[in-house]
Amino acid sequence: MKVLLVAFNAKYVHTNLALRYLLEGVRSVNSDVSLREFSINDHLDQIAGEIYEAKADVIGFSSYIWNIKEIVAVIRHLHPVCPNVRFVIGGPEVSFEAEKFLLEHLEVDALVVGEGEKTFLELLRTWQNGGDLAQVPGIAWNENGKIFVNPPRQAAPDLNDLPLPYTENEDFTGRIVYVETTRGCPFNCQYCLSSTFQGVRFLEAERFRHMFRLLLESGARTIKFVDRTFNAHKRHALGILDIVRAESECLPDAQRVRVHCEMAGDLLDDEWMEYFRNYPLGLIQLEIGVQSTHQPTLEIVSRRQNFNAWKKYVPEMKGLGIPLHLDLIVGLPEENWTDFRTSFNDVYQVEPDMLQLGFLKVLKGSGLRLQSKRYGLVFTPDPPYTILETPVLTHSEILQLQRMEDVLDKYYNSGKFVHALREVLKLFPSPFDFYDAFAELWQQRGWFQRQWQGKALFDKLWEFVDNQDVLVWDGIRDALRFDYYLWERPNVVPDYLRPEIGLNTEEANQWKSKQEDIRRDGYWQEVVPEFIEMDRRQWGRNTAVAYFSSDILQEDEQKTPCWYLFHYRQGKVRPYRYEG
To answer: I need a labelling partner for 320 at 20 to 30 A (CA). Which of 38, 178, 197, 471 fits?
Structure first.
């Protein structure tokens, strides 16, 4: 029996962890098994053609809310020309309401419900031996249009009984590799499928070491833990991070490795901070799901936390160079526009590296799905089941929040407007009010309907500022100019960022001469290490000089006029104040 496992990943760089578990399990009893990974952005006709030419007897798909439409479309494409092929789907998107799914998709022969490592292998053996599918727990199946749903299979009590998902040599260069060291979660968040089962199971540290070492040898440099709460058990988490450090330090390019962990903020403490202080710079990146700071909402979704208690750790983590992403969810029960404004401002004010706005997905099987009528949740009937409105948050408000998310990503999360945003925000009562007003201008101008190149975003921000009732623009203009030069070495500077605009010809020439004199000044020999390595032409191509009416890097209120030299090298830029 020839088995083909198919992954539809969100992007080419992603990898599918679930199917690699199945691959290793099936391979132990059947060598004729293979894995193919595609992107949901690939042409479905091309994908179907490649799957068809594999000539498999059983084709298994890994499903999620973001790829189930593509999976179904490909199966419908293949079914008429592959009448003898058995199509199987597993994953969270088919693990609930299985009977309904099969009735709506009669081309599918079976669903693997819940954890699939043991179930899928038993399903294959039953088909191979002509056995009775009714004896296979954890599946739903279709027999000539009649649907059967078998009793669930108990989850594997020990992760260490499962095969490791990465054992063969693959080239993971440039890809994001997903790993897990735990299954389950200590919390019971009603928007998450982890709330559908209890307990946390742990992978032994040395088994992880073996897998992690192989991944590094295979070129993996960006590794993401899918553990729901990585720091659920402190000793386990610290042990895993010790292994990450030890194995990464054995590489000649250890500084390029980065692991991404999702942690619970309220499980951080002083011991964690001490550990981070001694951890290699750039090796770890953290994501923390705040979701909301509105306590009544947190009570409803069973995610009690005290953001005010643990937010004190955020500045120190940033100071240690640990990239930190904080998440909020729009559309949770009982959080209206004003409440979400507070949640947004609470999180924004601690200045995470990224503030990610997610919109509630009312997932099959989740507590909120089961209680959706009680809480008046209106969501899309098709995947990904995105919230449309609630009794306290209108659809129009959600649409505006989606626009704000877009603007937030372009400006704050890009990291390209740090100084400009700091100045512009002074014009508004709160960060939320700025993004609300800015998104409204984008909507009015029709800017969301086009893709804009990076520097066009500066034009949009300046147009927004220009529409405000501002008496003094110099501070904002200086900050925007500073960010503009930090973006990349500019060939052309827009007029609104040129302080020499308005000068007569003689004054403009004097201005230009001053810039060149500063660029060539021997002062830089003592300040910029690379100065002596470059000839005049190289130095000119890799530097830019700009004037500022006030030094925005000064913290005191008495900011003085100054010149800055920006040095560009290998995709990085460093500013140096001219003191000559």
So the answer is: 178
